[in-house]
């Protein structure tokens, strides 16, 4: 992958339609795989509610200026309605003929898939069966697949799995300390997520240090509302903080991350929680939100922390301090997987934009020879990338991730499409 280029205004270029269906949203982008340029992108959110709306951004037209169009969705306000609106817009802008394939993000591929895969009935059945491991995401991913297969009957469709990059983990990293037959019979193990993001930024870091990815040893911290740390040895994931589900690992926006499993028994047996209430507590009411009792948004917490008159200032700082400590602790522990380390990567919404969080984490990693350049750290935000460490430190990069580009590129590679040529 080279540096992302601006979108071409020539509407005859071949492109991949990338679809990412979440539990209540649909992200989409029409991407030229060679350059990473987007002809059209957008987001449908608040699905399955009357507030559902869709935003579509493109620069197709006489003036070639970037346009953002927002419209409410029609009943039943669901994924189908969102994707139908997208298809209609693609027709209106004469972009349908540009689409040579559709690439779908699917959260959980279990142990079945270590590579992008062409969709067929057996693949769809496996995605459905794996919904037990990703109940909020895999069913929604399937909706996107089914709608796009109806809308683009003649186009090849490919799935790219979040878990695929981590299928290179050895048993010592992915097994839990529970009876082995639970892994053999029920596939209970660590899978890991954010695989496309970790893969993308590792590739970019390899370019920074002018080494093949296969020779790079890195630790990647994807920090956002969902956060994970991955250790990359010789270009391959060998361990990661998330587990069988995205609940495990470091503290996140609303997720607890790792806790003593006996807390669950205590909540149920002593405090009267139902299993569903515990699930909701750990996934949606914990993390930064639970600790701060204010917000899951790092920006809101930083603002409150710095405003000493804010009633939640102290608690906001506590939440952020715990968040940063757990991430630093995870990074330090993962260094045991490597005999050498080329550098550390920050990515994701928080990792790319919060200079305070990055500094707080790096300040705890002096033993690994990470030392921050405060001026570079402050300047590297809002999509910019670069090394924020001092000259005598190990490298520490901020790299803006682009998971959609990974999906488009891997879809084109699987299908052996020459998307550099005009149609």
From TrEMBL:
User: Which parts of the sequence bind substrate?
Assistant: 105
Asked if the keyword Transferase belongs to this entry, the reply reads yes
Q: Where is Mg(2+) annotated to bind?
A: 20, 403
One Pfam match, by short name?
Acetate_kinase
Q: Which SUPFAM superfamilies match?
A: Actin-like ATPase domain
Kindly state what the record says about how the cofactor is bound: Mg(2+). Can also accept Mn(2+).
Q: What class of enzyme is it?
A: transferase
Catalytic reactions of this protein: acetate + ATP = acetyl phosphate + ADP
Cofactor(s) recorded for this entry are: Mg(2+); Mn(2+)
Catalytic site positions: 162 (proton donor/acceptor)
- One GO term describing the cellular component: cytosol
Q: Where in the cell is it found?
A: Cytoplasm
User: So where does ATP get bound?
Assistant: 27, 222-226, 297-299, 349-353
Against HAMAP family, the record matches this protein to: Acetate_kinase
Protein family (similarity comment): Belongs to the acetokinase family.
Assembly behavior: Homodimer.
Question: What is the protein's name according to its record?
Answer: Acetate kinase
* Species in which this protein is naturally found: Colwellia sp. C1
């Amino acid at each position: 992958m080279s540096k992302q280029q601006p979108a071409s205004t020539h509407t005859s270029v071949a492109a991949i339609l990338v679809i990412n269906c979440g539990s209540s949203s649909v992200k989409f982008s029409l991407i030229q795989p060679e350059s990473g340029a987007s002809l059209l992108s957008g987001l449908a959110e608040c699905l399955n509610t009357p507030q559902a709306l869709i935003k579509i951004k493109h620069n197709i037209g006489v003036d070639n200026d970037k346009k953002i169009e927002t419209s409410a969705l029609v009943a039943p306000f669901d994924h189908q309605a969102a994707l139908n609106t997208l298809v209609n817009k693609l027709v209106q802008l004469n972009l349908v003929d540009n689409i040579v394939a559709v690439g779908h993000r699917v959260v959980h591929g279990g142990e079945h898939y270590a590579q992008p895969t062409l969709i067929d009935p057996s693949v769809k059945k496996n995605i459905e069966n794996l919904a037990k491991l990703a109940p909020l995401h895999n069913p929604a991913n399937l909706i996107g697949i089914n709608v796009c297969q109806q809308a683009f009957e003649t186009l090849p469709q490919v799935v790219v799995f979040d878990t695929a990059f981590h299928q290179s983990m050895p048993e010592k990293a992915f097994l839990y300390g529970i009876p082995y037959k639970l892994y053999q019979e029920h596939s209970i193990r660590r899978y890991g997520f954010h695989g496309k993001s970790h893969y993308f930024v590792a590739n970019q870091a390899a370019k920074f240090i002018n080494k093949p990815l296969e020779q790079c040893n890195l630790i990647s911290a994807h920090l956002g509302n969902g956060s994970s740390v991955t250790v990359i040895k010789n270009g391959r994931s060998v361990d990661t903080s998330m587990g069988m589900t995205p609940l495990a690992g470091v503290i996140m926006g609303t997720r607890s991350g790792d806790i003593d499993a006996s807390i669950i028994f205590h909540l149920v047996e002593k405090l009267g929680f139902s299993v569903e209430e515990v699930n909701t507590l750990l996934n949606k009411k914990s993390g930064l939100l639970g600790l701060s009792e204010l917000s899951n948004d790092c920006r809101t917490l930083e603002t409150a922390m710095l405003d000493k008159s804010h009633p939640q200032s102290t608690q906001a700082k506590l939440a952020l301090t715990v968040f940063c400590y757990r991430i630093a602790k995870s990074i330090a522990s993962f260094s045991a997987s490597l005999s050498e380390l080329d550098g550390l990567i920050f990515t994701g919404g928080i990792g790319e934009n919060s200079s305070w969080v990055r500094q707080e984490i790096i300040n705890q990693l002096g033993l690994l020879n990470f030392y921050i350049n405060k001026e570079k750290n402050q300047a590297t935000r809002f999509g910019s990338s670069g090394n924020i460490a001092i000259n005598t430190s190990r490298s520490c990069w901020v790299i803006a991730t682009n998971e959609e580009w990974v999906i488009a590129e891997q879809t084109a590679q699987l299908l052996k499409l020459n998307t550099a040529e005009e149609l």
